[in-house]
Specification:
The protein is α+β, with helices and mostly antiparallel strands. It contains eleven helices and 34 strands. Strands 2, 3, 4, 5 and 6 form a five-stranded antiparallel β-sheet that branches. Strands 7, 8, 9, 10 and 11 form a five-stranded antiparallel β-sheet that branches. α1 packs antiparallel against α4, α5 runs antiparallel to α6 and α6 packs antiparallel against α7. The chain is elongated and about 115 Å long. InterPro entries: 6-blade_b-propeller_TolB-like, Bact_OuterMem_StrucFunc, OMP_bac, OmpA-like, OMPA-like_CS, OmpA-like_sf, TPR-like_helical_dom_sf, TPR_rpt. It is found in: Cell outer membrane.
């Protein structure tokens, strides 16, 4: 069942107009009746402001004109003037408590929107005592009651919340919303709506302060169509966004991607089917590894008006979207998804889960079984009776950005930031920044970057360094060990590993890499091939590294290599020599078993000879215990 507030509003509103014009009025004042009838005609023409003025005259002519108070309250609520609507609903109840049982449902919803939860609860409880309620109306009333109960409790237990308006550099008298920042917090991109046209703006941070926001790009923004609801990759190179009614779209709104080119942006293109449909797809949020996209759609197969879906990138493109399920979606609306770079903490807004009224912000965490847990409301005063949406976080999870029209800012929706309470934060992540250069020329290189979770033996980041600067940026969970592989056609690939166990997330982990052209005598230390102490069986976490070596040999079919094994100086020289040779042979055997021609390979053990560090400490000895390959022909 698809049920929205607007649908319910119309459902209630129209019968009241018809009913009021057919019954005997509660007044005999001819002027009051005349104005009441004129108001009905104005409503038929959608002239709501005229209707309000005519109904105000009617109740001024006769303050006990029940039908006029009821209709005036409905029109005021339609125009989002809830305080005034409540006043007239209460007048109806005072004059004629049984005038229309739906009055109790209407005033209850209006009171929730106005933050009056206790009287709303009383009126809603009264409403559900009536017999033979329609199933949709009873379900909606009970949902509003849950909102009241939650809100009364939440107000008694407020969470820490000090919102800071981001100032005139970001906010204007227009609406600003849906902010996203790069992982290093150097750039903020957001949506601004002027004259009902949505475009992107950006602000760069300089010396800890945000600069005056500027129009993002003519390549992305258009004067005719709406662009908004965006997600930026952690390194700031890819912008996923919503484009509506564009000539190359499939539906009313579709999801597009644009790639940064130097200081500008390239032409965006649609992500096409099956992600986009003739329906409504919007508000994308991209995972840190760039392989899963979360978005909002009203496509078939959902639970409500707008649901959150996800799609995973495959070798053939984006896969069939999957609904996030009943632990996220309700029969109402869920929107503004944001997946944190930890890939296990999910934020969104909803008017379906118990909240403070309208749309509230929620958090859901990924359980060990791979399922998303039921969401938790972020609480009061983060959430209020107004609309809260568009929550995004900094990569370190300490601060959040969001938009609100309820905090008396510069006008309309403004963007705010605040420190997130500890219990609402994601898992700690940090970001890794690197640059790739040619070892001889020191010129930047575009290269393939792959970062591997060594425990899971799977890539968590795959991308190219920038062509202009050779730079890359990746967000990674702290407390883990990672392997790093960097490759480029015509160069030896680079292998390394690093640990983020104990790393302070406030600082970036910086890596600088110099790639060497393929030349005879060139060597690569395979830092992510692992053996147990005094053993030569290859450990499972070595497979990703071995696969990179297979790819290198496949891409360079003329290359022949020597696989070399080394040990430290502890133990018997003969035993060390044999161990180093067996370890080199294990790599040789793995490669030949993976269809690498044996004639391209030799292996040799060097024991404790040729150390690359003094054998004076455990750390130095670990560097000497290594596996290498050396180019012997090309």
């Amino acid at each position: 069942m698809r049920l929205t507030y607007l649908f319910v509003l119309i459902l209630w509103f129209l019968p009241v107009c018809v009913f009021a014009q057919q019954r005997r009025y509660s007044t005999t004042d001819k002027d009051a009746i005349k104005n009441y009838v004129l108001a009905g005609e104005s409503i038929d023409e959608h002239l709501y402001e005229d209707a309000i003025a005519q109904l105000e005259k009617a109740v001024n002519d006769d303050g006990k004109f029940v039908e006029a108070h009821a209709l005036l309250a409905d029109v005021l609520r339609l125009r989002r003037q809830n305080k005034a609507a409540i006043e007239h609903y209460l007048k109806v109840i005072a004059l004629e408590p049984e005038h229309n049982r739906a009055i109790y449902l209407r005033v209850g919803e209006a009171e929730i929107t106005d933050g009056q939860y206790a009287p709303a609860k009383q009126h809603l409880e009264k409403y559900i005592t009536y017999p033979n309620l329609t199933a949709p109306n009873e379900a909606f009333a009970r949902k509003l009651l849950r909102d009241c109960e939650f809100s009364i409790e939440a107000l008694q237990h407020p969470v820490p919340f000090i919102p800071i308006n981001m100032g005139p550099e970001i906010n204007t008298e227009f609406d600003e919303y849906l902010p996203v920042a790069t992982a290093d917090e150097a750039t903020l991109i957001f949506t601004r709506k002027i004259n009902n046209n949505e475009d992107f703006y950006k602000s760069d941070k300089l010396a800890g302060k945000w600069k005056k926001s500027v129009y993002l790009s003519d390549a992305i923004n258009t004067p005719t169509f709406n662009e908004g609801a965006q997600s930026i990759s952690q390194d700031g190179k890819y912008l996923f966004f919503t484009g509506c009614n564009r000539p190359d779209g499939q539906g009313r709104c579709d999801i597009y991607i644009a790639q940064k080119k130097g200081e500008g942006w390239g032409k965006p293109f649609s992500l096409s089917s099956p992600l986009n449909t003739p329906g409504w797809e919007a508000q994308p949020s991209i995972s840190a590894d760039g392989r899963t996209i979360y978005f909002v759609s009203n496509r078939k197969g959902g639970y409500g008006g707008y649901d959150i879906w996800r799609s995973t990138l495959t070798d053939k493109g984006w896969g069939d979207p999957v609904n996030m399920g009943p632990n996220i979606n309700t029969i109402y609306d869920e929107q503004s998804p944001f997946i944190h770079p930890d890939d296990s903490t999910f934020y969104f807004c909803s008017n379906g889960w118990p909240g403070m009224g309208n749309k509230d912000l929620f958090i859901s965490r990924l359980a060990k079984d791979g399922k998303w847990q039921k969401p938790v409301n972020l609480g009061s005063p983060i959430n209020s009776s107004g609309d809260e949406n568009g929550l995004t976080l900094t990569a370190n999870g300490a601060y959040a950005f969001f938009a609100s029209d309820n905090l008396k800012g510069f006008g309309g929706y403004d963007i705010y930031t605040f420190e997130l309470p500890l219990n609402l934060r994601p898992n700690i992540v940090t970001y890794v920044k690197g640059d790739i250069k040619d070892i001889k020329t020191r010129q930047p290189l575009e290269a393939i970057i792959e970062i591997i979770d060594l425990e899971k033996n799977m890539p968590v980041y795959q991308d190219y360094s920038s062509e202009e600067l050779g730079e890359f940026l990746a967000t990674l969970a702290t407390g883990k060990n990672y392997g790093l592989n960097i490759s480029r056609q015509g160069y030896l690939f680079y292998s390394d590993n690093f640990s983020l166990i104990g790393h302070t997330p406030k600082t970036a982990y910086n890596i600088s890499v110099l790639l060497s052209p393929i030349e005879v005598g060139g060597k690569v230390i395979l830092k992510n091939i692992f053996f147990d102490t005094n053993k030569f069986d290859i450990k499972s976490e070595s497979k990703a590294e071995l696969q990179k070596l297979i790819e290198f040999l496949t891409l360079n079919p003329a290359v022949r290599i020597e696989i070399s094994g080394y040990t430290d100086d502890i133990g018997n020289d003969q035993a060390n020599q044999l161990l180093s040779e067996n370890r080199a042979k294990s790599v040789y055997t793995y490669l030949t078993g993976s269809n690498i021609n044996p004639t391209r390979l030799v292996y040799k053990g060097y024991g404790k000879t040729e150390p690359i560090a003094p054998n004076t400490s455990d750390d130095s000895r670990s560097k000497n215990r290594r596996t290498e390959f050396k180019i012997i022909a090309k």
